[in-house]
Write a structure and sequence with these properties.
Blueprint (H helix, E strand, L loop, with lengths): L1 H17 L3 E9 L2 E2 L4 E4 L5 E3 L5 E7 L2 E8 L6 E7 L4 E3 L2 E2 L10 E2 L7 E2 L8 E3 L1 H4 L7 H4 L6 E5 L7 E5 L7 E5 L2 E4 L3 H4 L9 E8 L3 H4 L6 E7 L8 E8 L4 E11 L3 E12 L15 E13 L7 E15 L15 E16 L5 E17 L2 E20 L2 E16 L15 E17 L2 E12 L3 E15 L2 E12 L3 H4 L9 E4 L6 E15 L5 E14 L12 E4 L4 E15 L5 E15 L17 E11 L4 E10 L20 E10 L5 E8 L58 E10 L1
Parallel strand pairs: 1-8, 1-9, 15-18, 32-35
Antiparallel strand pairs: 1-2, 1-5, 3-4, 3-6, 6-7, 10-11, 12-17, 13-14, 15-16, 17-18, 19-20, 19-42, 20-21, 21-22, 22-23, 23-24, 24-25, 25-26, 26-27, 27-28, 28-29, 29-30, 30-31, 31-33, 33-34, 34-36, 36-37, 37-38, 38-39, 39-40, 40-41, 41-42
């Protein structure tokens, strides 16, 4: 019996010896801060774990031997380490992950004028990196925004293809465009100034939806777009991006940097775009796409100063020659009535600077200046305009216990002059350029009520030299429920002074007379926005980010151009009632372990006005060119075995009301549901260059396929064969059966069909 017990004991000891296992434990962190929910995988096996809220992980039951352990997390570059595991041993391995610059989880400044983590900001800010825009390469920032949910580039002219940016269904004048936080793309330049910003120099684009006038003043009513350029020290030594399309468009972006001694680093960027192919697929004798020749040069200097104080100066020059119209037009017909075209020469230069004062307190002086010179003709109607905008701002940033204070003073001066009655005295005999001074002061206090609760209070006072006192308060509340759930509530007011040119480009085509029925007052808005973000982690390392918002904006004194009362006029007046923009929006950002990435978004929009003139409550009227719903998507997948990346992007828009010329106009009153979709293949097998190509507008969709014509009377653009009755009303004749005049304002989407593209990117660090 004793021998049998000894044998059993020996067998058990041997079995345990053969099944001894070890474990690996450790921590994942970045900048000494733990990374929760990071994926830790044993390469080549099914074993793995996920870090807890403290960044700690443990992988058990590993047989003795050597392993490669890989740590990965969204927003960070993956890291792999080798470990050797002995019998029954526990090995410690820690991972210090580096931030992934292509991630959307970055530092933002637009919401509060301070550099803060996007997750910590009480104001919801959407951030888009160059990697996002490279999924659908475009020749300008204007075109690049077409795949951002709730943001729509809107063409305003069927001939010259100028446009503006709509946010949440509000027209372009409600959107403020900033470069490095400076309001230099505004007023006249909002129509032409978005072209030519070198894409190679863009670090990221930050978007705030909803009023931001308490920080940025006039025009930041519907939202703002801040284009952040790269810091020279972070830019590659040389970068280039060149692509061409089957329509013979050519776009070139080049960037390079160098050191100017030990005290300065310099970043230079050049963009050149050329399109000179006269295509008339819809056979209306007009170019389908505007001919363009554009060059832009940008240079930015960063200086090394004591205690790392900031000193940065940047300048940009942009020249563009664009025209659209009769396919037989040339410059000898410019300004005459023999061939119709809209020809626009634009010269523009900009200066931006930031200087941190040499004091203990954090005092930052920012300044900018731009000069915009435009020489245009719309048929035989000349439009000659100059605009100069000077801006300076001093801010004081101070932290006191639970308070994060920001106070500032700003001065903005605008000079605008043109050859139209807009800048003439009442009798039209004396030129009277617009000169508007807008000094203002503001204060903001971000209060940490508790670990998970923050409140932001803000107030701005501006004095407009024409309109007087303007107050814009602001309130924001952030509740960080936990690491994966954040709730934000924002409320505030906005204001906007009026620039008729940016209200509607069609005012200058000569097709309609501009009528202003009263002295226009500045618009004012009241807004509330509720935002909820959620992260959903999966054990296999996958992640879904959800970002959902609901908003409500109420407008007083809104200015809407009236096209319908008289088809020969554009009538401007302040709305005797109110207008509303409200809706729901959601974005999904999904990352899967196999490398698949999906970004999808959708918005439901309810934008309308009520005219209460005469004491009667008017009906709801939806503005022209405003969709009720929209969607965007981007699907990316890497085929690692052959170093190939696949990107499928697109957008879709619901019907919108269109600017017809009356009941006899045979063109549609509502646009159809329409979608622009693109696919791109990129070879990524070399660190220094990429080769990419694909197809734009896969569905070959254009707005004119289901219309009798897009441009009204394109073969009689000077109305030489239009007949009128005694009251000036257009008569129906055999040559003009619909009783129409020439009008190119019927436009809602690009008139460019399917085209292939091929390009190459180079990058030397």
């Amino acid at each position: 019996m004793k021998s049998i017990l000894t044998l059993i004991t020996s067998l058990l000891v041997c079995h345990n010896a053969f099944t001894q296992t070890g474990s690996v434990r450790g921590k994942a962190s970045a900048a000494e801060k733990p990374i929760p929910f990071a994926s830790i995988q044993v390469v080549g096996t099914s074993s793995g774990a996920m870090t807890d809220s403290s960044g700690v992980f443990t992988i058990k039951s590993l047989a003795p031997g050597g392993y490669f352990i890989k740590a990965s997390a969204v927003g960070f570059l993956p890291l792999t380490k080798k470990v050797v595991l002995a019998d029954s041993a526990e090995v410690e391995v820690n991972f210090a992950l580096a931030a992934d610059k292509s991630s959307l989880n970055e530092v933002v400044i637009t919401g509060t004028l301070k550099e803060v983590s996007r997750l910590e900001s009480p104001v919801p800010v959407e951030v888009y990196s160059p990697a996002f825009f490279r999924k659908n390469p475009t020749p300008s920032v204007f075109d690049a925004l077409q795949n951002v949910n709730g943001v729509r580039p809107q063409l305003n002219c069927n001939v010259c293809n100028t446009g503006d940016i709509h946010i949440n269904g509000l027209e372009g004048p409600y959107t403020m465009i900033l470069i490095d936080g400076m309001p230099i793309v505004s007023g006249l330049s909002s129509v032409y100034g978005l072209s030519g910003i070198p894409n190679a120099l863009i670090e990221r684009v930050e978007i705030v939806k909803g009023p931001a006038s308490s920080l940025y003043g006039s025009e930041a009513v519907g939202g703002l777009i801040n284009i952040i350029t790269k810091k020279p020290q972070n830019a590659p030594v040389f970068s280039g991006d060149v692509f061409a399309t089957s329509w013979r468009e050519i776009n070139t972006d080049v960037g390079f940097k160098f050191n100017a001694g030990n005290k300065a680093s310099v970043l230079t960027g050049v963009n050149y775009f050329k399109y000179g192919n006269r295509i008339d697929n819809n056979d209306d004798n007009f170019t389908d796409v505007t001919q363009q020749d554009r060059i832009s040069v940008f240079q930015k200097w960063n200086f090394n100063r004591k205690d790392n104080r900031l000193l940065s100066i940047a300048a940009r020059y942009n020249y563009e020659d664009r025209w659209g119209g009769d396919v037989t037009w040339d410059k000898s017909f410019r300004g005459g009535d023999q061939r119709y075209a809209e020809s626009i020469y634009t010269k523009r230069w900009e200066l931006i600077g930031n200087y941190q004062l040499p004091f203990r307190e954090k005092l930052l002086l920012s300044f900018s200046y731009n000069d915009h010179d435009q020489n245009s003709v719309y048929g035989k109607t000349p439009y000659l305009a100059k605009q100069k905008i000077g801006f300076s701002q001093l801010t004081w940033d101070k932290k006191l216990h639970r308070h994060d204070l920001l106070a500032g003073a700003a001065l903005r001066y605008t000079y605008y002059d043109d050859n139209t009655p807009a800048t003439a005295s009442f009798n039209g005999s004396i030129n009277a350029p617009d000169k508007v001074a807008l000094p203002g002061v503001f204060i903001q206090d971000e209060i940490a009520l508790a670990k998970k609760h923050k409140v932001l209070l803000g107030l701005r006072y501006d004095y407009n030299s024409i309109h007087g006192d303007i107050f814009t308060p602001r309130f924001a509340y952030k509740w960080a429920i936990n690491a994966n759930n954040i709730l934000r509530l924002n409320a505030g007011t906005g204001f906007r002074v009026v620039s008729l040119f940016t209200e509607e480009h069609a005012a200058l085509t000569g097709a309609r007379e501009v009528v202003v029925t009263e002295k226009l007052q500045p618009e004012k808005s009241y807004n509330a926005n509720l935002n909820y973000t959620k992260k959903i982690h999966f054990e296999n390392g996958g992640l879904i980010n959800v970002d959902a918002s609901a908003w409500y904006t109420h407008f007083n004194n809104q200015i809407l151009p009236d096209y319908l009362t008289d088809p020969s006029k554009i009538i401007y007046s302040n709305l005797q009632g109110y207008a509303v923009s409200r809706g729901l929006s959601a974005n999904l950002d999904m990352v899967f372990p196999n490398g698949l990435k999906v970004i999808a978004g959708g918005s439901l929009l309810d934008v309308f006005s009520r005219n209460n003139a005469g004491g009667n409550v008017g009906n709801k009227v939806r503005p022209l060119l405003t969709e009720k719903w929209t969607g965007t998507w981007s699907v990316s997948y890497p085929v690692k075995k052959i170093d190939l990346a696949i990107d499928y992007t697109g957008n879709i828009y619901g019907p919108m009301q269109l600017p017809r010329l009356g009941d006899s106009d045979p063109r549609s009153a509502l646009s159809p549901i329409w979608s622009l979709q693109n696919i791109q293949l990129t070879y990524t097998g070399n660190k220094k260059y990429e080769i990419y190509g694909g197809i734009k507008n896969l569905l070959n969709w254009t707005p004119g396929k289901n219309e009798p014509f897009l441009i009204s009377r394109s073969r009689d653009p000077f109305d030489k064969n239009v007949e009128y009755d005694a009251n000036g009303k257009v008569l129906a004749t055999a040559q003009n059966p619909y009783a129409l005049k020439f009008d190119p304002a019927f436009v809602y989407a690009p008139n460019q069909g399917m085209r292939g593209f091929l390009g190459v990117r180079v990058n030397f660090r």
